[in-house]
Amino acid sequence: MATLSSPGVGSGLDVNSIVSQLMTVERKSVAALDTKEAKLQTQLSAYGSLKGALSTFQTAVAALASPTKFAAVKTSVTDATVATATASNAPAGSYSLEVQTLAQSQKLKSSPFTKTSDVVGTGKLTISFGTYNADTFALNADKPSTEITIGPGQDSLAGVRDAINAADAGVTASIVNDGTTNRLVITSKDTGLSNALRITVADADGANTDTSGLSRLAYDGRTLSGVKNLTETVAAQNATAVVDGIPISKPSNTFSDVIDGVDLSGKRAIVTGAGSGIGTETARALASACAEVILAVRRPEAAEQIAAGIAGSTGNANVSVRALDLADQDSVRRFAGAWEQPLHILLTHLHLDHIQGLMFFAPMFRRQSQVVIWGPAAPEGSLEDRIARYISAPLTPLEVRELPCHPSFREAETTEWQIGSAVIRAGSVAHRGPTLGYRVEADGRSVCYIPDHEPGLGASLAELDDEWISGLELARDASLLIHDCQYTDEEYPDHLGWGHSPLSDALAFGQRARAEQLLLFHHDPLHNDDFLDEIGDRVHGSARLAREGDEIETSEIGASAREPA
Q1: DSSP, res 535
Q2: Contact, 126 vs 149, CB < 8 A?
Q3: Which domains does the chain have, with CATH numbers?
Q4: Which pick of 123, 330, 376, 475 has the fewest CB atoms within 10 Å?
Q5: What sign does the dihedral 192-158-169-131 (CA atoms) show?
């Protein structure tokens, strides 16, 4: 017969321990599964991070598919007060930039009127744009002329102003009160020489060029045949700059096609006479195009108010208009130190007596100075390399590359170029080594500088044709000729071919050149003052010896120059 037995207390078995151990064995398999799950979760998280990183990498690689990313460049201007630059698809490079003048819009003012309600006249105004060149006017083909009818009810000063502005003729008209009278001011909206104004009038009174009626507003800037019943207060002007020695002229202050892929913009202008109505209008016009306008005045408290008004009324939100007190010399010196105009040094040649002064020229040792050194080209090396032979040990403690101003060097070609408002011309002249003479023309006057010169090389100038006389064309009709006169006629035979002139050749050269005034220069170091006075006694007419401290105004040539104190 089958039996069923159950372990009990009497069996001697530890039932609780057996069950507990069996449960522990079961839990090990569950724990192993939990560990495996956690490991798999970690791997999944890692795969997710990798996927995200790959996605970011794919986005970055996709961006590289655009060629423009590899052509991107960054621009910088060493003096951000002079110009700004932006670039796109431009080749990498470094350029020397000198902003000489900013572009200006022409501005014309009328004769004075007592009240803005005063009658000007009726008729028709025709406003045209173009370029003046002496007695010619070439129309700007891109800007059609505009005809404006001034009828009854529009014939007051204020009415004419409103009619001109309503016509959208490419000009703005405003009325400026100078404290006692009112003037109509007409300004071309666009800058540049090609946007100069011509205003013709069909006056209702039949007289189109007289100074009564509507013809008071007639203006034609041709030098001889033009009618100028309006007065020019600001001339139409191109922006001019020099980029790596190449002169550039543009009608606006943005040079967008000078350097491939780079846009350059001139930034700063200085206005004198601010506080008068016309000076203020000039500043207002410049403020619309420049980043900074300086009002050079002698009443700074008034100029501050003017500056605030101009800055608030211009459409250029980024313009800075501030006053410079001309009566405060400390302010002027600080301003000059913060912004110096480029200094141009014209070297005729590189003999030691002509370049030793470079190391004693204070601006060379100011970091803010902009020094440009011009000189003749030579096959044996660049201008900088040749000057560096002198500005180096053992002659000087510094080398060219260590000069604080970091001057730029330009080899002057025998051609014309422009510095500011002056036209410079260089010409080769007879002297030892590559040598230039210079001619500087501005405001209808000219100075020719030929300090080391042997024009006839021993031949009599009276017997030579013009084309065989070195430097003659360069000096022709100069207002002032500064010319070599190192030797007396008695000394010259012992120095023939040394590259300098005797007194008789210097005088003959000045006469053949038809110079208005001849200043004899480059005296021999062995000639003392008494000896030079004896030479001076032989010189008459428009010629005389140069003296230390001489000051000569070319506008006063024909009268005697001021002797040094």
Answers
A1: H
A2: no
A3: 71-100+238-264 (no CATH), 107-234 (no CATH), 267-336 (3.40.50.720), 343-556 (3.60.15.10)
A4: 330
A5: negative
Residue 283 carries which side chain, given as an amino acid letter? A
pLDDT digits (tens, 9 = 90+) for 118-149: 999 999 999 999 999 888 999 999 999 999 99
CA nearest neighbour of 407 among 375, 372, 443, 447:
372
Structure tokens at 243: 């980029």
Residue 552 φ/ψ, nearest 5 degrees = -130, 120
Burial of 388 (0-12, 13-18, 19+ CB in 10 A): middle
DSSP-assigned letters across all residues of 119-167: B---EEEEEEEEEEETTEEEE-TTS--EEEEE-TTS-BHHHHHHHHHHT
Sheet containing strand 268-272, edge to edge, reads 268-272, 292-297, 320-325
Tokens of 88: 């796109």
Model pLDDT for residues 186-199, shown as the tens digit of each residue: 999 998 999 999 99
Report strand pairing: 268-272 vs 123-133: unpaired
Q: What is the DSSP letter of 303?
A: H
Is residue 255 pLDDT above 80, yes or no? no
Q: Which residues contact 154 (CB under 8 A, 6 or more apart)?
A: 122, 160, 162, 163
β-strands 320-325, 196-203 pairing: unpaired
Instruction: Give residue 235's pLDDT band: very low, low, confident or very high (50, 70, 90).
Output: confident
The structure tokens listed for 28 are 């090990």
Q: What is the pLDDT of residue 230?
A: 93
Q: Residues 382, 395: contact at Cβ < 8 Å? A: no
Name the DSSP class of 237: B
Contact 303, 275 (CB under 8 A): yes
Quickly state the pLDDT bin for 548 (edges 50, 70, 90).
confident
**Single pTM value for the model:** 0.46
Secondary structure element (H or E) that encloses residue 537, with its range: none
Cα(229)–Cα(211) distance, integer angstroms: 7
Q: What is the pLDDT of residue 111?
A: 92
> What Cα–Cα distance (Å) separates residue 78 from each residue in 98, 202, 350, 368, 496?
11, 53, 29, 10, 49
Over the Cα atoms of the chain, what is R_g? 40
Name the pairing type of β-strands 543-545 and 517-521.
Answer: parallel
Q: Which residue has the tokens 């501030």?
A: 322
